[in-house]
Amino acid sequence: MDEQQNEDQAGEQGSCELTVILPVRNEEHSLGECLASLVAQSEEGWRLGRHWELLVVDDGSTDRTADIARGVDGVTLLKAAAPPEDWTGKAHACWTGSQQARGQWLLFTGADTVHAAGSLSRSVVEAQRHSVGMLSWSPLQRASGLVARLVMPLIFSELATAYPPRLVNDPEHRIAVATGEFLLVRRDAYRKIGGHAAVATSLVADVDMAFSIKRQRLGLRFRYAPEMVTARITRSAGEFWDGWVKSLALLIRNALPLALWRLLDVALVVLLPLLVMGFVWQPVGGLQPLGRALLILIWLRTLLRIWRRSARSSFAAPDVALGILGLPVFAALLIHSWYAHAVFHRVQWKGRVYASKA
User: What pTM was estimated for this model as a whole?
Assistant: First the structure.
């Protein structure tokens, strides 16, 4: 059945204001909390099942994900077929959900999100008020696990630098970005850009859709929204690592040079104190007080620069401080992502291997 036939069928079944589409694959550890926050959104004039609907699209889960979705009242569970060869699993699951959606607005979100009360209705109001075809909220990030806590502030500080909302929201500037954790798109705009079918092979489909929205001047709005939605990173260290290897070098185009700069920061942070204490190099007659003072100032200036850059991530101060210790891990992640895309041309995510065309 093609898209127009599906649209006609949805029209016969009656439309609603919003369809929330939640693609899932082995999300038993986070799905319950996400669904609880979504079904609790019902309020006067905004009733689940009448004014909006919630579709969970199971992308071949092998754990209790489908059972959890079935156990929540108001949730419609859809089973996505195996993705065609030229599709990523998530894009195909999102497309499957969009074909059954009745909403005038489509919200694509992730199982690791928790939504504040009233956030769904407020997102539609915000998109309408700004006359945009796509609204994306960057969530408050809550990381668990040492690897995630070490590198998340560093990752998001670089993303904040590369994609400042002021430029993303400027229709005259080419920069565009969106996050699949909260991606609201008007139904007619989604159809006009070809939906997920147009980004079927993309490993950063949300970003590529945002570029399409902006190129076609359909209106794009992106902002940090910690009061609206929270993303809780509960994946294992391996899943966390694979997820960012899949996308980091595509989001940060200078990944390899950036990794080398971060390694230089590591060298400065570690070596300068050793120089001051004479453990690395001891000149004849010893290091003079002025020389020690200069090295200490350079060291403090380096820490301050790293802190200020990491603070752009909007993480709490303790996480930003911990992020400084994560510099070598972040550099390794950048190098791994660059190698996977630029040399190996393959990435792995959730049990599937995808070709990279970067």
Answer: 0.90
